[in-house]
Fold each of these.
Amino acid sequence: MITEQELVQNNVLHNQSTVVAELIKSGTIPDESLYGQWYEVMEWWLVTPYLARLLKEECEVVIEDCGCYWWGRQSTGQAIKMDDVISMIVRSFE
């Protein structure tokens, strides 16, 4: 069984909040508000395609563009492994 720590360690690559903000500002990629409802994204993280798919299944904001997968994390201030969505994904493997 995979742990939250292993899932994050192997699939969350880099914080790219500044990069994504600039891409949205320039119109290169769409703003997260275009995903059907309003989201308050606190951080943007580059993730693997595998984790992007799992996050989408949990209705998380994921932008697939420019050959990248960015997760719009809706929390901040704690380790990613502690996010509810990460725990839900890990529990789904049981």
Amino acid sequence: MEIFILVAVCIIVLILFLWLFPIGIWFQALVSGTHTSLIQLVFMRFRKVPPHLIVNNMIAATKAGLKLSQNELEAHYLAGGRVGSVVNALISADKANMNLDFKTATAIDLAGRDVLEAVKTSVNPKVIDTPPVAAVAKDGIQLIAKARVTVRTNIKQLVGGAGEETILARVGEGIVTSIGSAISHKHVLENPDSISKLVLTKGLDSGTAFEILSIDIADIDVGKNIGAQLQMDQANADKNIAQARAEERRAMAVANEQEMKAKAQEARAKVIEAEAEVPLAMAEAFRNGNLGIMDYYKMKNIQADTEMRESISKPASTQQTKK
């Protein structure tokens, strides 16, 4: 039993020793021509840096002819960087004769960009398809264009430079400007390369992480007749305004007519009221002696003569209607 416990303790101690002293990794670095000490590998354990990650990337860099410092790789790992991606990017850039140093590569990686993908895109440009862009020519016809933008990564502008979204936005703006300045949509359909030439002259890749190599118009479709639609909408709006103003005038005329009728009725009422007071005034005149019997008969004769003249002056059709 004691022997079994002793063997178990020895095995545990051996495992801890091999974990603390990564002899296999140290020997791998030694035979690969990468200088590192076993003590440094032990210190990596205490610094919470995986020795195999640092050593494997140092071996890959050494075999590729690059000289990288172990302290720089550890510092980049502790800063949260991707050591493997940075080393592979440096190797790819060296093979492609690109001027990319370790400081720039780590800065790009810590900025959140994929430095290896950037190097690949710089060597092998990629194509970005723009979404459909709608614009209206001067003749009022809408055109819907799609473009393919070929870009190459600009390593120097990768840190702090704008991304693909800015490229797409600027290209879309350039397409809208180019189509909008065309006199006729037929001219754009006949010469789609005029859009590419105008957009390329604007320097759309300024301040971005990419260099625009070419802009090709992949497709152009004819959309709506926006000019005619706007004219129809304006005509409908003018018609509605005219109808509203006519309705307003009609309402005012009706109100004036009602007001005039009310005034006429009021006037007739005053006349009837005044006529009703005539007999009273005549009775008062009789009592006061201001009106005699002969005067009264003369007034009646005058009224009779007036009514006779009015009846004679009226047309015959009016008299028959009354009968």
Amino acid sequence: MSRKDGVNRREFVTSTVGVSSAGAMASSASAARPAAKRVIGANDRINVGFIGVGGRGSSLMRLVSRMAEQREDINITAVCDVYQKRKRLAQERSGAEFATLDYREVLARPDVDAVVVATPDHWHGQIALDALDQGKDVYLEKPMCHTIEEARRVAEKVKQTKGVLQVGSQTTSSRQWWKARKAIADGMIGPLLLSQGSYHRNSVRGEWNWHIDSDAGPAGTGDNYIDWKTWLGPASKRSWEPERFFRFRKYWDYSGGIATDLFYHVVAPLNICWEEPQFPYRVAATGGIYAFKDREVPDTFNLLADFAKGHSLVLSSSMANSTHIPGLLRGQHGTITMVDHGKFEGRTDHITVAAERAHLEEFVSKWGYQSVDIPVEETPRDAHMSNFFECMRTRQKPVLDADTAYRAQVTISMGVESFRRGKILYFDPAKERVVEKAPATG
């Protein structure tokens, strides 16, 4: 095969295609001893590489570019995408000195301190593992990974390498979750019983039906070239299908649909509210393709999870109806309304804590009111990325660290599997794996 941008495509495909996303993900990079990491001082510039610069990656690149203009301690030095046009445009817009179709060339550069990974979901795990092994810190777009096994391995790799990994669910940097966490810790609502949330959208064409560049593909030349075999990576081999490339979230091979794209923005902040990130005990999911028949993943999806500490989670969603339900934390003594408009990614200036009527007298005696709005400060739009860069300097745990993100991933991925298999599934925390029968308790 020919070389494009100096990369031997046959060598790259041979080392990646056919790798199982569920277990045999180790590459030569991941098997090697972790590379030395540059120590970044308070005044040192952080050099960032972007891997995946489609819609989401481009948005993050614009954010970091604005931050770089304001702070001058951040620099975008490399960009990567398997689509030649996206790669070229990203380099022009960011001013990066290096651009490639091969993410391994970004990781090999000593002038790259961190990578922002915004590829389709099925590549998150492998790239994160390789990046950590190369001594890079990682901003990993949500969902954390495509499978539970990948998420577990990434969390373990973070501990092994002592790397900083922030999962990119930006809403977790909003203050309402931390206010709710404190209210629970203070005992305001008594024992936690039930968390609820939703994610609803509606459109004429259907969610994820993004524009298709009709001239682009593996047979394209110049800007129209797409390295399809590399893009497939650990997923099943198949002939070029522009629908799958440009609208990947509609297909199980590359996405978990609503659960991994949208419920991650609900389950991750709830794990913050609960004080301690938790694996689910039992998960069931229902729904179907009710409105849009052009996809594999459901357009309407509901998830129910139970946790061993004695509380449950209820989530609803539809991509054909946009009316949310409030985001609530229900306790025996009171209720916390975290987002009364129901949009977990939406802004709010307060949370509300209200007493349960059965415990009203006790609640008022202890707190002095039966309902209170607790103000929430506005969160800067760059807060989540800023937290990542700050943690690179301090080596502290970021807002959405690997362990918390892993536990959120288990809940939503179990929901995907429950729906696809038509079964209630259980999680064995000792073995950290999904089982079909409740694990024995000691």
